[in-house]
Amino acid sequence: MKIPYYPGCTLNTTAKGFDLSARESAQTLGFEMEELEQWNCCGACFPLSPGNVMALAAPAKVLTNARKEGESVTTLCSVCYNVLKRTNVALNEDKARLAAVNDFIEEDYDGSLKVVHMLEVLRDTIGFDKVKEAVMRPLGKLKVGAYYGCMLLRPFKDVGIDRHEGPTIIEDLLTAMGCEAIDFPDKIECCGAHLTMGREDVVEKLSGNVIASAVNRGAEVIVTSCPLCQYNLEKSQESIMETNAGHKEVPIIYFTQLLGLSLGQTDEMAGLDGNKFDIRPLLKERGV
Amino acid sequence: MKMNINKDEIQSYAIEQLERISGEATKNCYQCGNCTGGCPVSYEMDIAPSKIIRMLQIGKIEAVKAANTMWLCVGCLQCHSRCPKSVSVASVLDALRQATFRSGADHIDVKEIPVSFLKNTPQQAIVCGFRKFVS
Q1: Biggest alpha carbon distance in chain B?
Q2: Nearest to B90 among A10, A48, A156 (CB)
Q3: Is the CB of B75 inside 8 Å of chain A's CB atoms?
């Protein structure tokens, strides 16, 4: 089974481990993530004011090209998922807007593409029970905090991957992988996102809150599905370690990397070298 | 704090334009404060999210434009998610940024961004930052 796949700009550069581990995991689970032949950046933020039609052009172009290759497109990055899915909703709910965007990008997109996240593929197409059966290396009750952030969940009306307060889709996957999923209060809070451009102080505070919230509940690892969350949390943790000698470092990795390891992938296949905080010493400590 | 309220400011073109761009009706807000309670960056804002809406209800758009609030909104949508009246303060702040950009004013000078930042930061942060801060 082949699934049309949109990587987005960041998975080709700073988040290569996310891309690699997802593709390898898909192979093990019996499907192939086939990269779209033609794609461009989604724009990295959905225009929140409906009067800003121009900002829909880039994501609409992605949707148009994806529709030419199939009925659905799968993403990994939470932001790409949010932008593409919301753009699709915005174009479908207002035909005049769809016509204006089509005129601008010189296409004839009809709004019929389905945008899905890899988590949905694993839950709804493959099934977490099948994932559980495929696990070759149960991760020894590793205590893992599932960090959702914003873009995977909100707004519920347009995105709807899971409940926007108290989601469990990542925890359910972690449980299937043999980990102990840790619920923590800040799992749906923002990391500071693009404020990393110019307001690192805010990012450090917000991401620091997320890390502290997870650690206080006992998390030893934090998983995410967003390259910007991953970057902000890693960078903030570096600052925390400079000022707090007692802080025990927490690997911040993509859920696909942990999935890959549980499916028996090598460290290279799981793209572990790209992470600032290495999970391997912890795995060794637990004997897995 | 004493403040003069007048009809001309409440019915100004700027307020009308803001509601048109944002698609939000500020009068729907009854000031419960959930948005400010949910906002992760409100601690750093000159005017908190719920107060932004109140200021717009009484026509004080110039004070709202002068505040740092629109440049600190991360667009996480906790305000919208928790609003009992489905008002999206994030959309109002986005519209304020759009109106500012239409006047040709940028929030940051691209030339001043360090090259090391552009080399090491995820593309999505750079693209998103440009869209939020530059016309």
Answers
A1: 51
A2: A48
A3: yes
> What CATH number labels B7-104?
1.10.1060.10
At CA B78, angle to CA A224 and CA A97, rounded to 5? 95
Residues facing residue A158 across a β-bridge: none
Instruction: List, edge to edge, every strand of the sheet that includes A2-6.
Output: A32-35, A2-6, A72-75, A114-117
Residue A172 and residue A77 share a domain: no
Give residue-wise pLDDT tens across range A166-177. Answer: 999 999 999 999
Question: In whole angstroms, what is the distance from residue B56 CA to residue A117 CA?
Answer: 38
* pLDDT class of B24 with cuts at 50, 70, 90: very high
E strand or H helix at A146 = strand A143-146
**Both A31 and A135 in a single domain?**
no
Tell if the CB–CB gap between B124 and A44 is shorter than 8 Å: yes
B contact test, residue of A42, A48, A232 with most B CBs within 10 A: A48
Residues in chain A: 288
Q: Is the pTM of this model over 0.90?
A: yes
* Chain A neighbors of B88, CB-CB under 8 A: 48
ipTM above 0.85, yes or no: yes
- A44, A165, A198 ranked by CB distance to B128: nearest: A44
A15 within 8 A of A84, measured Cβ to Cβ: no
**Contact status, residue A152 vs residue A117, Cβ threshold 8 Å:** yes
Half-sphere exposure of B38 (CA within 13 A, CB side): 23
Residue A84 touches partner B, C-beta closer than 8 Å: no
Residue A274 burial by Cβ neighbours in a 10 Å radius (0-12, 13-18, 19+): middle
Write the pLDDT tens digit of every residue in A236-274: 999 999 999 899 999 999 999 999 999 999 999 999 999
For chain B, the structural domain boundaries read 7-104, 107-135
Domain assignment of residue A205, given as a range: 128-286
CA distance A140 to B4: 65
A61 & A151 share domain:
no
Return the axis-axis angle of helices A95-105 and A78-93, rounded to nearest 10°.
120
CA dist list (Å): A118 to A78, A271, A279:
10, 17, 23
